[in-house]
Structures
1.
Amino acid sequence: MNLMIVGGGGREHALLEQLRKNPRVDRIYALPGNGGMAAHAECVPIRATDIDGIVAFASEHAIDFAVIGPDDPLIAGVCDRLRAANIRCFGPSKAAAAIEGSKSFAKNLMRKYGIPTADYAVFDSAADAYAYLAAANYPVVIKADGPALGKGVVIANTREEALLAVRAMMEEGAFGSSGSRVVVEEYLTGVEASVLALTDGTTLIPLISALDHKRALDGDLGLNTGGMGALAPNPYYTTELARACMELIYLPTMRAMNAEGKPFSGCLFFGLMLTQHGPKVIEYNCRFGDPETQAVLPLLETDLLESMLAVEDGRLAEVPVRFRAGSACCVVLASEGYPGAYQTGFEISLGDATRAKNVFVYHAGTKQEQGRLVTSGGRVLGITAVGANARGAQRAAYAAAGQIHFMHAVCRRDIGERAILWAERGE
Ligand code: AMP
Ligand code: GLY
């Protein structure tokens, strides 16, 4: 089989490492891939947002199965286009990808079908939003309706902050058309959990849970990033919670999408807040999470490609999905300055990190340049270690990360720490 992976981040590298284990695979192309993926895939300089380019490449290179990593091409309908060209793929239709592409669609779906989420109101006019904010309780959360490169969420502690956020989104076009509609949400407190689930619209199989670390600095301070590390499973996400989420959130979401005539096929990501009043959905994503995937997939025991093919064929129920015991911790090495401005082009020395057993070095912002591996992005590498327990995995991940060097490398020193301490105290 010829595979194509669309995307070039740590998530896609982690997908590649699982997919290439399948003995039926002949060739793998990555569009555009990265400096690490190049070891096992042919990297092709086509951007993940170039839908025409992706479809043309797949048709010309006899691609048997395409796996789409990022949200943008899914929201733009790349899977519809591929299927129309008789190319099988893993990912939702454009209609179903609206569950991530439009926050108002997702919120209205949850309200209509009784799926627990934060209270909210939707506004198409800035004047109406201002009037609402004059009488709101603070903090509130302001969200641009459409995709905004992970920057469309503002937690406003005061009315002034809320008004500024609405003005930027609705009147100053900070996120283009994505901000012409905003959702104003109740602020929830609790701990967060990420759950990725495979679904073909009939069967839904949650993968092991994960804990993301979105803020740039230790102690959850600093700016929001694409994710600075992850721990799987998430210590806060108990078996009881998993059972409750399946009944109250996951299956109802799958059925709601069917009832709306938008059956979801692919990986459905549930961003959860575990509140005092039970688990609530903060957001849906229509794809694998990053960096969660880099902590979840190394624990997968069964064959990912067979599961993905089964999703596309609507026979997910027939294929077992199993995880091994233990934990995985992913520490992201980033370029100093990220998520703001940073420099690239520094040579990377991986040392012995890649030789350690149970350590996986996933590339994100790297590229090969004249035989050298150099930095090319904000998040450069995700270093994942698997261990018998969360503490063991965390220590091994930091030990491996410590062997890797490039100029101006930074990482959080506390990935998993608070959750691990919480779990240790509870025992
Ligand atoms: P994202 O949508 O990935 O940019 O994430 C925004 C982040 O904002 C989430 O991971 C939460 O930490 C936070 N967040 C979003 N919605 C809420 C809410 N209703 N209450 C509290 N925090 C929220
Ligand atoms: N880690 C959250 C996301 O992938 O959007």
2.
Amino acid sequence: MTHQPQAKYRKDYTSPDFTISDLDLTFDLFDQETTVTAVSKVIKQKDNSTLTLDGEHMELAGIQIDGVEWSAYELTDTNLHIHDLPKEFELAIITKVNPSENTALEGLYKSGGAFCTQCEAEGFRRITYFLDRPDVLAKYTTTVIADKETNPYLLSNGNRVDSGDLDNGRHWVKWSDPHPKPSYLFALVAGQFDVLRDQFTTMSGRKVDLEIFVDQGNLDRAPHAMASLINAMKWDEERFGLEYDLDIYMIVAVDFFNMGAMENKGLNVFNSKYVLANDQTATDTDYLGIEAVIGHEYFHNWTGNRITCRDWFQLSLKEGLTVFRDQEFSSDLGSRAVNRINNVRIIRGPQFAEDASPMSHPIRPETVIEMNNFYTLTVYEKGSEVIRMIHTLLGEENFQKGMKLYVERHDGTAATCDDFVAAMEDASGVDLQQFRLWYSQSGTPQVKATTNYDQQNRTFTLQLTQATAATQDQPEKQALHIPMNVELYAQDGSIIPMVINDKPAGNILNFTQDEQSFVFENVSEKPVISLLREFSAPIKLHYDYSDEDLMFLMVKAQNEFACWDAGQNLIAKYLRQNIAAFQTDKELSLPQSVLDAFKGILLSETLEPAFISEMLTLPSQNEVAGWFKPVDVDAIAEALGFMKRAIAAELVEELTAMYHNLKQDQYSVEHDCIGKRSLRNTCLAYLAVTDEGEKLVTAQYQSANNMTDTMAAMSSANQAQLACRESLMKDFSDKWSHDGLVMDKWFMLQGTNPANNALEMIKQTMSHTAFSLKNPNRTRSLVGAFFGQNPVNFHKIDGSGYQFASEILIQLNESNPQVASRMIDPLLKYRQYDETRQVLIRTELEKLSKLENLAKDLYEKINKALEA
Ligand code: B3K
Ligand code: ZN
């Protein structure tokens, strides 16, 4: 490392010294040397005659001010300082970049045969020298020049305004984007594609051309993305009153992409994983993921693009809000309960783990070294929970009023999280003063609840205490405003109205102090309390429920989420007991009453199959790991395995009957068909560990007419380590090895293989023809899955998993630091493990910290992890 990377602080924000109102870009595209000409209209805002531009990884080939060659400048590795500048001027800069050697996939790069860009957060500075910060909004025109035969499509933001042919087989297209935007929303794509076209008419009658660009031959995998886009456009008009604002909306699917997708104005670039699907190549989960991500990027057009972020510390302003919007979209289109359950699993599993890690940060971080490190579960998912709590406190109607005011006030500008909360507060009259702490305080609040029933006075008292443990970034914590959604039930299942101080209380209690009591009046029998309904706040709740109360709520709670949560609580109780039993060499066990409760759920005639499937799904090994310190990976795996076998053995007949009853002849992605497949495949996962497993799994693989059922068979074979695993894996690879995206599913099974020799097999798999460490999807599927979702093998006490991790990270640090930085996360959490493993992991982290060319991305995380 040549210089120590520098941290930036939120408190240091100052408005820019110069602004840029217009930018005219010309790209002369060549694989090895692309020339970029950038002509900006610059206006001085403060008394400063030096303009400092951001720029890196490129060659500066010329500077002119108002048409005159300029020599009053200095160039460093990261900046261009231009001196002696007038008040207003035209700045022309010529740079040269090499797309084909850009393996970091930031800036302008080649994905397969196509040119594409990724600029968020700070990639535009790899294209030209610029004020690469989100509060500098300019109008862009972009001319793209390239070879016509290899790049028939030349795309950029906005509307296509002109085009023409040149000598030597080259051609050009000019684009103009009327909406001022920050540089991170710039995009360019050039290449050869197949295009799926459709049209959407907005509520005010604007006709919008919709175009989805995919690799040639993949057109039959684009319709679901198109349908999702149209649904998203309609939904945003209906639920939020927000309409699209250009005449064209383009989506391009590329194979080399660091994350899911990117909301560039009018030209979204997508990881092909979130576009391409047909029933032979994609699972139901893929279909739902596509719907969510297409929606998410579309919703950014307002929450992100029309109103952007003042600085990157405000990232959750657009991301938390847009995740909230995409979750609502999926919930309105599909099952609200199933969506809520899956979102809550992410918070309780990986997000809580992030809070407990050295990377702990508030949803609005205070300090950042590498911005790309802060596209986190905390900023996104917890950020969405914070928006959801505002929604809970205000109600839908006031929330929508707040959204309207927010848009009125800030459209066309770069705003802050405070601006958003102020709009919500002003529109609703609800006091959010204390609530704002959710933006600045990191960590997971722990809430303890106790209750007391006073028969004589007919009162029921709920006593709550809250505390947030110190986190590495923030030692002092304060009491938060926690919306507590509760309900009281009588033994017959009826709801007991909640009355406090003689007034109806409503379900949402405002829990704002360290300790607080709520006394419910007129309670004529000892109630069963349903706490934290809908997971109304991202907290860890401790309440000593009896088995009877949990089984009661599983069946009687008048809210599906609450039923599921009661079931999870019951499972959690016995998981903890069995983990302790394993650790003390006692016999593992599960009471008949618990087995009966789950049998009742499986046989329910009123519950939806999709929901039953969620009820029967055990928590992930990672979620359970979050309950313990130190984590005992082997004991957790044993207890989970035991519970699965116990339930399967007890319910084998019911599971088998259900499995056969739920068979569907035709594949359809309608939500109830997805739900049936989900339950059927959950049954299969249980049956896989019974004597029938081998037969059922092989038969399902052979007869499957869709990828969901194929993958369910394979993953059951993988998890249960059935004898048929090897032949199924071989058959699948023979069939799909030409298709990297489909092979990712196979790589994932290799990565999560519970077999004792998994690491050895993974190393062999790295030489599979479909595998490449240069492709982020392949890397995440095989190697990422091993690091993050194969705890027993990754954390093997011989340290082999950790050594392998650092070998891989050394390579990725060179080729793609962003991917490296995502993959290192499991190692950062070393303090959760026993002494021996801590030492082993630290050794690898120290080795990595000494790398000569350590990228900022890894530097920031490793340094935090190694800090005491
Ligand atoms: N805004 C992009 C993420 C950019 C990540 C940069 N490292 C996708 C999204 O959240 O919609
Ligand atoms: Zn987003």
